[in-house]
Amino acid sequence: MLAALLIAPGRLEVKEVPDPVCPQGGLIVKVKACGICTSDVKMSKKGHRALVYPRILGHEVSGVVEESNNEQFKEGDRVQLAPGLRCGDCIACKRRADNQCKSRGIFGFTHDGGFAEYVAVPLEGPVMGSLNPLAEGLSFEQAALAEPVACCINAQELAGFLPEDSALIIGGGPMGYLHALLARLKGAERIMVSEINQRRRELALKTECRIIDAKTEDLFHVVTEETKGRGVDALILACSEVGLNESLLKLLAPRGRVSLFSGVPADVSQVRLDLNFVHYGEIRIVGSYGSTATHNAEAIRMISSGELSVEGLVTNIVDLDRIWEGLEYTASRKGMKTVVEV
Ligand SMILES: [Zn+2]
Ligand SMILES: [Zn+2]
Questions:
Q1: I need a labelling partner for 318 at 20 to 30 A (CA). Which of 40, 66, 220, 332 fits?
Q2: Three-state SS at 217
Q3: pLDDT tens-digit profile of 65-108?
């Protein structure tokens, strides 16, 4: 099959590789669409300390069952692939926090992923994947967006989103965009999105939120105005270059919550915190990483029911053999989401 194989950091080659073998109790999915995530850009350029080469990246996958050794699925079923593999047996798995499973595997990371014609999905054994059937009419492209949506669901759940919350999202890329849409669904009253890239600000207008240009507007001033001096209830950091700092913390209302949604480089990862501000304001700071099988199923449900409209989020589509263009587009931040169509 044709696959984009990461041979070493910076060396991604689209080439013929042997077809995967259908796992016992599992299946082979013929990939139709696979979203490009910023983590794919980072890994393809700089690698990752836990990555074993060669590896096929891609964890936002939808496709059609090609071969099945599992009675739950048959050839021809249209599916979305949740990226996590879990043991199903540890405390994390039993608490439905399978994204923290101690034996966790991830497609496009520990297992070959979706930047290929086929992907092997184990559904039994030491690590198990999960698949969500697609409703008729749901496109593969939209189904591939379920994974990023699932990550946002996880973050907002952990941040204890409440109806009538006000929210400030730092970063108006694809993830910030999805956070804004989800926050609205959760009943958030005032939603602000701060983004420095002009093109992304224009695209984010579609969310009908207050879009802030942090280069020319004062964040503190806007938040004060929009929340009538109360501050924001939820602050979501969805930009891989912005860490939590004291001026951001000061934007929070009492009982405000901070979601550390994006991973950040080492130089912004270490912060100074006024613990008394956290103490008196009853502030919560909560991380989130990836999503669980349950979040993926919920994301698919929200997208197929039309509850969450992801229309307009995909601004670039590339073929597998032009994957570099998609990765460059993602790195350039000139649009929103790229999906590889296989
Ligand atoms: Zn992703
Ligand atoms: Zn587990």
A1: 66
A2: coil
A3: 999 999 999 999 999 999 999 999 999 999 999 999 999 999 99
Helical packing angle, 38-46 and 323-332, nearest 10°: 110
Ligand number with the minimum distance to the CA of 299: 1
8-state DSSP, 207? G
pLDDT above 90 (res 334): no
CA of 178 to the centre of ligand 1 (A): 12
CATH superfamily of 160-287: NAD(P)-binding Rossmann-like Domain (3.40.50.720)
Provide the 3-class DSSP secondary structure of residue 128: strand
| Tens-digit pLDDT profile for residues 121-165 | 999 999 999 999 999 999 999 999 999 999 999 999 999 999 899
115 CA to centre of ligand 2 in angstroms: 26
Neighbouring residues of 78: CB distance < 8 A, sequence distance ≥ 6: 62, 63, 64, 133, 134, 138, 140, 143
Ligand of minimum distance to the alpha carbon of 105 = 2
Compute, in angstroms, the gap from residue 87 CA to the centroid of ligand 1: 21
For residue 90, how many other CB atoms are within 10 A of its CB?
Answer: 16
What's the rounded Cα separation, in Å, for the pair 81 and 217? 41
| Residue in this structure with the two tokens 């806007």, named with its chain if needed | 222
The residues, ordered by sequence, that sit 6+ positions from 287 with a Cβ below 8 Å of its Cβ are 158, 259, 260
Which ligand is closest in space to the CA of residue 127? 2
Are the C-beta atoms of 252 and 261 separated by less than 8 Å?
no
Task: Compute, in angstroms, the gap from residue 96 CA to the centroid of ligand 2.
Answer: 9
Compute, in angstroms, the gap from residue 94 CA to the centroid of ligand 2.
7
Domain residue spans of the chain:
2-147+290-341, 160-287
Instruction: Examine domains 2-147+290-341 and 160-287 and report if their fold is the same.
Output: no
CA 276, CA 112: separation in Å to the nearest integer? 46
CATH class of 2-147+290-341: alpha beta
**What separation in Å is there between the alpha carbon of 292 and the centre of ligand 2?**
11
Distance of CA 80 to the CA centre of its chain: 14
> 83 is written with which tokens?
């990226």
Q: Look-up: residue for tokens 């690590």?
A: 127
